[in-house]
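Agenda item 2: pyridoxal-5'-phosphate complex prediction
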Amino acid sequence: MKRIYFDHSATTPVDREAAALALEYMTDKFGNASSIHSFGRESRKAVDAAREQVAALLGATPNEIFFTSGGTEGDNLAIKGVAFANRKKGNHIITSAIEHHAILHTCEYLEKQGYEVTYLPVDEYGMVRIEDLKKAITDKTILISIMFANNEVGTLQPVKEIGRIAREKGIYFHTDAVQAAGNYPIDVNELNIDLLTLSGHKFHAPKGIGALYIRRGVKVDEIQHGGGHERNMRAGTENVPGIAGLGKAAEIAKRDMEKKTARLRSMRDRIIREITEKIPHIKLNGHPTERMPGNVNFSFLYVEGESLLLNLDLKGIAASSGSACTSGSLDPSHVLLAMGMTHEVAHGSLRVTLGRDNTDEDVDYFLEVLPEIISRLRAMSPLFGAGGTARAGNPCSECQAHSH
Amino acid sequence: MKRIYFDHSATTPVDREAAALALEYMTDKFGNASSIHSFGRESRKAVDAAREQVAALLGATPNEIFFTSGGTEGDNLAIKGVAFANRKKGNHIITSAIEHHAILHTCEYLEKQGYEVTYLPVDEYGMVRIEDLKKAITDKTILISIMFANNEVGTLQPVKEIGRIAREKGIYFHTDAVQAAGNYPIDVNELNIDLLTLSGHKFHAPKGIGALYIRRGVKVDEIQHGGGHERNMRAGTENVPGIAGLGKAAEIAKRDMEKKTARLRSMRDRIIREITEKIPHIKLNGHPTERMPGNVNFSFLYVEGESLLLNLDLKGIAASSGSACTSGSLDPSHVLLAMGMTHEVAHGSLRVTLGRDNTDEDVDYFLEVLPEIISRLRAMSPLFGAGGTARAGNPCSECQAHSH
Amino acid sequence: MYTEKVMDHFTNPRNVGEIADANGIGEVGNAKCGDIMRIYLKVDDKDIIQDVKFKTFGCGAAIATSSMVTEMVKGKSLTEALEISNQAVAEALGGLPPVKMHCSNLAADALHEAIKDYMEKKGK
Amino acid sequence: MYTEKVMDHFTNPRNVGEIADANGIGEVGNAKCGDIMRIYLKVDDKDIIQDVKFKTFGCGAAIATSSMVTEMVKGKSLTEALEISNQAVAEALGGLPPVKMHCSNLAADALHEAIKDYMEKKGK
Ligand SMILES: Cc1ncc(COP(=O)(O)O)c(C=O)c1O
Ligand SMILES: Cc1ncc(COP(=O)(O)O)c(C=O)c1O
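Presented output:
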């Protein structure tokens, strides 16, 4: 069976060229970039080249790029690194309720260490309100961390405006751009970004590699201690194959940015339009226009997300959902809930995230099988049609006690 | 020119099979292991299989293995994780003066957080004395962290005895086995090890992947916050290609352990013997017998390490040195100094670390060119022969002010 | 993650639907949790389950356990049916992922609710 | 990391050795730091450097700068020689890695020490 991959926000296949480069630096050119002999020097060269390629993707300079093991580490380093290094200036951090867990759980950790964190709410489209941000700023605020684009609903945040305000107030601005980097044009200077997290595997580089952009002059403490790599910002033998792959993927992403975003946007809009026409009792999640080019997110009422995913999977289509069942947690997506959605509707969400290898035929096929699956699941649903919820007897409250 | 790689303690080439597997999980089987669709499930399967392979290498069970981004992260997680999770029990950590910076700098960080750290001295062979360890233990001691084998001089520590003492006293025992794992037989149960760090790139797995063994029941706090991966011990999208490669390399290492260590040991002993015969004014660094099978480390008096390395490199031979010049720092190896060596002698150290692809011909060639290089450098050295140190005029003290 | 048997019941669920003249209906779960199961019973005078159908909103495990429990009780007496536990349903499916054991494995509870409903209606 | 010119001087250092009847000897650095340079001068009555040799214990940069400085001063007057700075030596080599600029780039200092020694001996 042909398999169609519609889950590019979860991860992406590594670009063939980037993978070939990674392979080369695993086998033939395998030196430790810190070694002074020829094996080491050829690795160092690859690291330097990649640093330039990643810098170019963001409009930064190479010495502002620090390689990490991925988005989660980048987020941890940005938040903890700024918090620890600037403790004397203040202890207040502003972020949003719809950040990735790499930000949220890091902030919760810092709360236990005596920091204060404001989690800004979002509107029904998943967007932070500038007014809320302005009100949240105090003279103790040292960091504003707002994601560039949300991973579930794709909503683009008003990053430029946030950057402007942060700059005005002399507060560092970090953005988790794990979804956006390589998939959406970004210029850190134009947008007043001081720190930016990116992760390779979201734009056709290998897993296990990422980078943190740190504007020159921004004070950040290292959080992983050891051999002084990455100019003392991130200890650990450089992952040269990953770094080389990341550099190549960044180069390709920059080169193809315009073409790719235009193509995905048109596929995305077609899917949104046709689902809206074909299937009743639905809700588009996220912002109607200010969203990632490849992100489609709908809630299908009366349907639960995991069973929808499994049915799609049986048809060869890979997608994702904000349903609790798919995450191994009890609650559905905190993002959908923060947008004001009920649990019921959140459980029935379906996220389709398109990538450069997807074709119109993939979309045809998806639009053919989806309505049928939804109908079948609704026919099976006690929530749909006549019934409504009948008598109680609800042992589910017990569930809340379990933690996974 | 043929290139000979004698720097396997710095890093190793990725095994062809492991690299092929990594490539496969970058391109064809690229799913996110957390996804429930078929792409995700095939990645999850690879992660599970690798966890078993790594566990088998150490005599552990799969649920005691946690994947990390490498040795440095593993060391950070072990030390900080145990320190933070057991703060109520005590605040004292015992380690040694010859640990890797990933341990030492992490301990120094903890000292700033109110922990107390004892850095055990070592004898002239680089070995910790059991008596010193026993004396250092207090009722506040929560962790003993002593490396399995030293990365510079190859000395094997009395791990089993340390483990026994730690177990007796109810103190956790961590060992940084980054050099030993995959290159020396290890059984965590036989040796009473509670936590063990390993790093893939030291035994023919890719860079950027490693693992921490945590004995079931040992309390460790997570230090990288986020999506709850690795059973809440290490957040971040699993580096599936790296993990699959690590698993395969672990399997191969286990399979070939006996044969490989025997071969390296005999090459090592030949090099030590012939250098001792051929070159005067030398000193073998490290333990004469209790050392890693592939480690040779000599100091060549009156010669500086970097220029020795560069001369070898010009002949196609890649090795390393404890000279300050090769590390970008002002001081030579803290390991050699802790063993009681003078700066002068430490600057003249040469480390040759053998690997499975090295041949007897490589050794022949090395033994042919080395004496000639040493002679040439000594002829150029103001320390050698007649002269001795003449008049002063020593602007070098200024140097101490620079930090690199 | 799911066994073949679970996937079989998920893909081809048995006894989906409603029974117009059901004399016992039971429902457990709620939409907040993401799982709701409703079981319809048609029980005869001899307390034998003549027909059983279900409607379920929930994940793969929820649908498969619902389907399985209906297969297990059809033609059984109420006494026998009352002895079927959630655990037994999971076992009949060849096991469920640990994370699903507590949250989505409620089909036997729904069955028992339906039997209780039947008994209450009969005034027993 | 090193330029071609550095590697050339490192591989084929010019003027290595001692001058038996040197009338100026200068040494800088110490073994603790890992760099020692000693310069031997043969200066004639007109204060022209007729011959210069060096001995160096140190890294690639230390050897290359030693070699370079001897090339730069041979045949020069002492006044000219005193104008040569460590910076100028590094530049003549096409630059040095930043980390080496301060620690191993001492050859001009050694030269100046040797000139000082010559002057002292001559009682100037
Ligand atoms: C918005 C966002 N931030 C952070 C992360 C974490 O990145 P990584 O998976 O590379 O650790 C992800 C993806 O998982 C993400 O989508
Ligand atoms: C003994 C020892 N510990 C820790 C490390 C750090 O491991 P990694 O390079 O994988 O971060 C190394 C090697 O660099 C090592 O030799």
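Discussion summary: Chain B touches chain D through 37 residues (CB under 8 Å).
Owner for follow-up: CH.
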